[in-house]
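# nightly structure sweep
# worker-07 picked up a monomer target from the shared queue
# config: single-sequence mode, recycle default, output format = structure tokens
# input follows
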Amino acid sequence: MRNAMIIDSKDNVVIAIEAIQKDDDIIYVCNGETLRFPALEDITIYHKAACQNIPEGKSVSKYGQHIGIAACDIKKGEHIHVHNVTSHRENLDG
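# output follows
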């Protein structure tokens, strides 16, 4: 049974649709395929988990949109929140 979701296949995070405990599998569907990987930390409901390794300085994407920059190397299965993602304001002036 799914416990996470992804909106855009280009996203590098999934959203927990129920609380996920460390070492439980995170299970979601992407492009019709059921995927799973172990949670490296507890993931609170509606919080994000990395569904791929995200190197420090790389973009973090959710719902097909850039939501921040990895403040450190983030491993697949780690909780993603303010402790490891920094905001990045795009230059909208030109």
